Target: Regulatory protein, luxR family
Amino acid sequence: MLVGRDGELSRLVAWIRDAAAGRGRAVLVDGEPGIGKSALVRAACATAADAGCQVFWGAGDELGQPLPLLPLLDALQVTQVTRDPRRDAISELLGGSAVAGKGADLAAAAAEQLITLVDELCQDEPAVLVVDELQWADRTTVAVWSRLARSVRQLPLLLIGVLRPVPRRDDLRSLFRIVGPAERVRLGRLAEPAVLELVAALAGGKPGAELARLADDAAGNPLYLTELVDALARSSCLEVDTAGVVELTGAATPDSLPEAIADRLGFLTEAARGVLRAAALLGVGFSVADLVTVTNSSLAELLPALDEARAAGVLVAAGDDLAFRHPLIRTALYDEMPTAVRIAWHQAAAWALAEASAPVERVARQLLPMVSTTDSRVPVPPWAVRWLLDVATPLIGQAPVAAVALLRRAVRDAPLDDTVTGTLACRLADAYYGVGNVAQAERIALRALDRVRDPDVRVDLYTTVVQCRGLTGCSADFLPELNNALTQPGLQARHRARLLVLIARTHRYLGEIDDADRFATAALAELGPVEDRWATGWALHVLSFVAMVRGEWAGALPLFERAMAVVRGDPALTDLTLQLRINQSVTFGALDRHTDALAAAAQARELAERTGSVARLSQAQSAVGQLLLAAGRWDDALAEVDVVADDRKDPAVVCGDHGVAAIIHFHRGETAAARRHLDIAALYSERIGDQFVECLVRACSLAFEHASAPERALAVLTAVPAGEDAGEELLGDTARLAATIGDVRTVAAIEARARAIAAESAIPHRRALALYCRGLLERDPTMLLRAADGYRDAARPLSRAKALEAAAIAFAEARAEDRGSARAAFTHAIDLYAELDAQWDVARLRALFRAFGIRRGPKVKHRQVTHGWDSLTPTEGRIAALVVEGLSNPQIAGRLYLSPRTVGTHVSHILSKLGVHSRIDIAREAARHQSASG
Ligand SMILES: Nc1ncnc2c1ncn2[C@@H]1O[C@H](COP(=O)(O)OP(=O)(O)O)[C@@H](O)[C@H]1O
Ligand SMILES: [Mg+2]
Model:
């Protein structure tokens, strides 16, 4: 029964009906423990089936906090074996069977998959997803909850979070900013009539004056009231008179909620209490099987105690499992054990679960109390060290913070100076690397190098150090040590090859390309017929990188093929595979092979999603964004660079992505938006010492052009370090700006460089660039028209428009009889700019040609509308049509070869452009639009 919550209940029930009708919503229910949050939400959910909604329910647990996603895995029934491919993929991922190498974030990958799973489940049937005790959920769960909350209007989903008030955690507090006040249900004390009604129901009659006064002390908290009345009944302090009024007879009444709970527990037999203490170690909800394991008894032996606990109102059934009736009851049992006893119990439970091959997270949950109590002197037992070594890799991927805590203690307690300590140190360094503490990872690895002799472990440690140094930019001073390592006795070819690869990688980090080339080649020679995928794959990776930097794009392609053939399918080399794929995509792009480039990037993206590498995912997205920018698909480019949040990307990637966005906005005359992107990029650029990022440099130069400062725009481009092979994409604009301000020497220098590049290459845009620069230098309109044709063949519309523009100017400046040609080129350029929606260029060009007396430009189609159906970009239009067909985001993603996240971004753009709130509204708008346009 539920008393005194009619208003709240009817709001929740109405929201469930809304969800069933396709209008999703995110809701927070908060209030003191025992105030009736779970009871209220459960009562509302009881109406879900009739409304046509399925219900998923999971809860946070105090002990589960260091381990990611348990509440959601539980709610969405992601268990060891299912027959659902999505769920299987998630549990496989968390089980560590696909590992994206060091720095992989399996929890993030699983989170991504869970969001997709929710999408798919909602596609089957509208849903209510409840996360109870959200204040105890891990951060990844909270992050997923908030991602779902932000996109919930795209789904037939009622998302409910239940938590205690005034959370101290910032991530929880931010949920209250996402969920508006209208969607917040704050539960306070029950009103007096409701209190009396509840007491009457519990006591079996109308409360008399004394009982009513006592009940009044319970602060309108139904849990307290329940515990209180039950306690009174147990000690026979209640008496019903003939008129049906219940009155107090005794004096000994509990005067706080904890006391009332203690009273309930006090009535249990010692045997039942023992079993319940063991259960309290497992959590609020637990499986009977686990209880059997940790108590080392049979089910038959446990049954009497469990029955007693249920009869006494301590335990309740929860699906196939059991649960404490309220978390406060579990806490009471747990807290009555002294810390040392508790830790010993937990340790025994961990051992029993590990012996029974329980999942990694269930064992870890029992081991963690041992290390989270800072003053604990309990050493990590040898079995736990062995277990940790076995599961380290998946544990680090899944719960790096927990892995750090456990491995740190294991390193401290394991016997010194042997392979075990070395290996443990390796894993601890990996774990630190996984949580982003690069400095600590490096320190651990260096310290272990001082004492470990085993060459396998040593090479592993060197690898960690090189990786850390690569990130912190202190690679140079480790080179002597690496060279020295090569001379140590007892090395096999495989060890030497790996060390040579590390030296090659270090040179590559340092930009010493020739040395990188030399050592990578030496590594391959050292290996000879010996097979070592790691060494071969990385050596080829360095060689392909060298080729890219040298601009030898065609030469890089076969290196990718060879490397990929070696590393493909090896889970330990996933990260390398990702890097190879991304670089391959960039290389295809540089060769004007756009389709191949997009295909390679899509493969990288898919693998990154699947294996949890958000950093690589954002690199792949960024590569796609730049390809789309060059190919003139600007709306799609804007969507791609917007997909991953800035704080999850490498700073250089953030700079590139905001550069792409700024370039597009500048060309479109959306100056304020462009400048916002530049401001953000500036913050990140500073963090990486203003490293050269091509797109950002282009955008910064464009900003000065916008401000009519061509000299400064040129200066930005020429400031790129001389001799830098990167920056080829900047040459065209450099020559153009230099020509504009009459800096003939610079034009001539660039022309010479472009000619040299084109001489060795058959790539269309390189040849076009040479023609463009020469045309600018010689003011030769015919040459510039040929450049425009070249850019057409390279499928680069912006460059093509610029070449046509230059040709038009050259014609106009030349002779009067060329006016016809000038007008033709001018018209063509305007058309191309208009197709890109580059309004700034259109306006600029028109003004310029008014000065030549060429006024009548063609009619320009301009997507002026910013709202409504006609404002949708072609891709948005396609996606809207699929939404109308009833496809989910993952299905649309599959159809259009986009990532589900990109589709999500597009759908939210569609919603705001149409000014509507749900997918159903999109369908309605589509129907309206169709009938309106006949
Ligand atoms: N409105 C209510 N009417 C009757 N009983 C209630 C009500 N709210 C809560 N209870 C009872 O009080 C106890 C505590 O409620 P619960 O929902 O678990 O609290 P919370 O989730 O806020 O900690 C439960 O036994 C529940 O059945
Ligand atoms: Mg509750």
Remarks:
- The chain is about 65% helix and 5% strand.
- The domain at 268-336 is CATH 1.10.10.10 (Arc Repressor Mutant, subunit A).
